[in-house]
Write a structure and sequence with these properties.
This protein is an alpha/beta fold. It has one domain: Rossmann fold (3-Layer(aba) Sandwich), CATH 3.40.50.150. It is built from 6 helices and 7 strands; from the N terminus they run H-H-E-H-E-H-E-E-E-H-E-E-H. The protein has a 7-stranded mixed β-sheet, with helices on both faces. Helix 3 links the parallel strand 1 and strand 2 (70-74). The longest helix is centred in the last third of the chain and has 23 residues, at 190-212. The relative contact order is 0.14.
């Protein structure tokens, strides 16, 4: 299955579940799958797992490609903790903790911020030399905190020209653009710089097109 098909199919599935109001968009899911594939990500930490849409999508990619991903996550909400084992088909592969400071002394290739955590200031201890961050949605406070922690970063807000589909959660505005995310390379390699530059250019032109379409 292609990356975009997996992202769309899983997004549709999670839209039908209770608690889907704030799940990651299909564009955010596709962006994450691309990052994992391009940079051969092996170790992931997801902060704020919610009902499991991100984890389930990534672990299905792993099943299809045998990437041998190690998946860690944080979540403290009781509703979500009850939903995760039901919603994530490969839940047994996840090492789940209540907050960042409870995660063992591990370092991650990719850190996904999809919820709040008061111990985000400890995240530098969980980073490798070239860790990638993806902050789902607009989460400005968390994004700014991460940027301040890593002065050598490269950052881009990734967006799409697609609008919310009809199968999105009923509370979503189908005349609005699908949500994106904040992509941060904390200490970019040459390959990461090239990837960042392409995304920066794409975002620039997408913003221009959005303005023209208003």
């Amino acid at each position: 299955m292609k990356i975009n098909e997996l992202a769309v199919d899983n997004y549709k599935f999670f839209c039908s579940l209770e608690g889907s109001d704030y799940i990651a968009s299909e564009f955010a899911l596709e962006t994450l799958l691309k990052l994992i594939t391009v940079f051969k990500i092996k170790k992931i930490l997801e902060i704020g797992m919610g009902i499991g849409s991100v984890a389930d999508t990534i672990l299905k990619l792993d099943q299809n490609n045998n990437f041998k991903i190690e998946y860690f996550g944080t979540e403290s909400n009781e509703f979500c903790l009850d939903a995760l084992p039901k919603n994530v088909s490969d839940f047994k592969k996840i090492k789940l903790f209540s907050e960042i400071k409870k995660v063992p002394n591990q370092k991650f290739d990719l850190i996904i911020v999809d919820g709040s955590d008061n111990s985000l200031n400890l995240i530098t201890e969980r980073c490798k030399a070239n860790t990638i961050f993806f902050v789902e949605g607009d989460r400005k406070d968390q994004t700014q905190k991460i940027l301040k922690l890593f002065p050598n970063h490269l950052y881009v807000n990734v967006i799409t020209l697609k609008k919310n589909p009809s199968y999105a959660h009923e509370a979503r505005d189908t005349d609005a653009y699908i949500g994106g995310g904040q992509l941060i390379f904390v200490n970019p390699t040459l390959k990461m710089r090239v990837y960042w530059f392409k995304e920066k250019v794409l975002t620039f032109f997408k913003r221009k097109i959005r303005k023209l379409n208003k």
